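User: Can you fold this complex?
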Amino acid sequence: MPGAIYAEGLVKTFGDVRALDGVDLDVPEGTVLGLLGPNGAGKTTTVRVLTTLLRPDSGRAVVAGIDVLAHPNEVRRSIGLSGQFAAVDEYLTGRENLQMVGQLYQMKAKAAKERAGELLDRFHLAEAADRPAKTYSGGMRRRLDLAAALVVSPPVMFMDEPTTGLDPRNRQELWEVIKELVAGGTTLLLTTQYLEEADHLAHDICVVDHGRVIARGTSDQLKARTGGERVEVVVREREMLTGAREVLGRYGAERAGGAGRGEVSVEEHTRMLTVPVTGGAKLLAEVIRDLDAVGVEIDDIGLRRPTLDDVFISLTGHAAEQEETEEDGAGGRQGGRGRKHRTKAAKSTEDAGASGSAEDAKEEAK
Amino acid sequence: MSTVTTGAPTRAPRPRGGVAQSLGDSLVVAKRNLIRMTRIPEMILFGVIQPVMFVVLFTYVFGGSMAIGGTLDPDVYRDFLMAGIFAQTVTFATAGSAAGIADDMQKGIIDRFRSLPMARGAVLTGRTVADLVQTSVTLVVLAVVALLVGWRTGSAEPTNAGKVLGGFALLLLLGYAFTWIGALIGLSVRTPEAATSGGIIWLFPVTFISNAFVDSDQMTPWLRHIAEWNPFSATVQACRELFGNPGVSTSDAWPMQHPVWASVIWSVLIIALFRTLAVRKYRSAAS
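Assistant: Here's the predicted assembly.
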């Protein structure tokens, strides 16, 4: 039996661009699917097709058991949408926005009003409820946007980059809400550029590139595919990079099978070297001894498991930040929306937070 | 569990469908647009200032050099002019509709609406109805200004309150018809800026190649034919007749002979055509 969100062979072209080139998805009820991919990979286009906003050239889609192409209006009763598009009206107050959405979901005016009040309380917007949304901060606006998607607590939710541009605290808060929703039985499709977010929230992950799903599985499965642990070394002086590289190269080369994967990658400006290894903590001690022997001083050294970033790069051949283009090129109109995504495919959890808050500052300045 | 997930997820209520739902949804959207207008009062203000400026400029600059019915009397030109200015004002609402819808497209609000189980035409109907309310307000202000500069109904022929109100009704119908053209423009361009200019430039030939500001009987024959069959001219002619103002064309072109009918027919045709096109465009809008 197909899941709550099911797609088969979705194709959509815009002129010469094949935005979707045969996308297949199957999301079991009550789970979260993370759709991961660089800008222009087809994430947003996929969501737009599944939410009845865009007709695919070919393919089949079923959401909440309803055929999307045959009965779009039935699907609309069963979904909530939040994120990049599907905005709120900035001149209306938070309360007015939610009431309007409720009424357009065909709730009675009184019921819509009550529901708006509940959601405003839940999303800590009660105080700002009667101010135009224009005056809200980035985080508040995002919460209002999510609240709008939850007016009828729909069985299937779509979130397109829900936390892009949020500071770490707001992001954490949103994650909590999302987890709560899923615990309540909602099925969720989430697109994101924050690999950490997919890692944290999604049961399954689909990596999309050039309009195709190029990998799928749980976060652990994808990481296992990419390879085992790696040693990360930060040397004291830039001149020591060459020596360190030689030493690390020996360990990398020992890897069975993947000759290409044993390569040492060097980041000059951070003086960091990374090499995939096998052998765990014991090996780390050897590396330290060897580096010491050739006179390389170490600022930092560690053993780490591959992150989804590594998965991403190894699968797509480029980092999530690659192009700073508008999402998907799904029609020129989006170009005018001016929401640039300079999302850093951050190297670690901490970095992801930091780049997030910089992004937030930009967003708030607008 | 908190109030976010009150019980298990549920689908939205079943839509009523049909006219009741269309009407209900349109009103919700119209209310939203009217609230917006009150939050951006400068939009209403500029919408009023522009026609007031036209009234003053045309009355005092052109009055005295324009021959209407063989006289250069500025008072006659002023009374002749007002029907034209009123008609021009209601059609300029087109730009507002176009810009408003283009803005909603760009901001992603149209996408929000399109993802909701609402009546398909309601977003556009809600918009055009709200614009009609704004046009009415502008028209009232404009009529007061016209009275202040000396415009009077019944200045050439006797008339009555019913006829005068009928004239204003025709003006509003014309304005409403034109906002549907604006809706289509708004859905077709890429930015609100383009919608503003795209919503207005073509209105200059439409309103000037007409009987609005000059006596069309004096035009070169080919231009005169265009002016006489211009949908815009029919309403202007009808208003002059109903207001009892001077300068009613004596041409035997059908729309000039039966201006009230011509005005209604033109407006209804425009609504039928552009509403169909705009709603179709809305449904497929890939913003």
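Chain B has 13 helices and no strands. The CA atoms of residues 95 and 199 of chain B lie 4 Å apart.
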